[in-house]
Structure prediction request, 106 residues.
Amino acid sequence: RKPSVQALRNLLTLKMNRYRPKQPFEKPIRLTVILYFDIKQPKKIWGTYKTTKPDCDNYVKEIKDVMTNLRFWKDDNQVADLRVVKYNAEKGTIFIRLEELEDGKT
Prediction:
């Protein structure tokens, strides 16, 4: 892995460890990830969608790998509903919401 990817993985592990459940989720999961990227451009574009690199799926893969290693769930194939959004922002941060779903329910 590239050093920047490993650094992201280490930071995610450090930050997410305190939120890990006592027992891994067993049912299907809805995972919502909102990525806020800090930008140096004018305030008027803060809160707008980020349509430049990095790609959403690259970040989500790392987040899911970390969550699997921390035992948020038994296997990341339990993520049956996934939403990822990227925004331009004043300050970079990541918001993650995890919901356990009932089998077969939307």
In short: The first helix runs from residue 3 to 16.
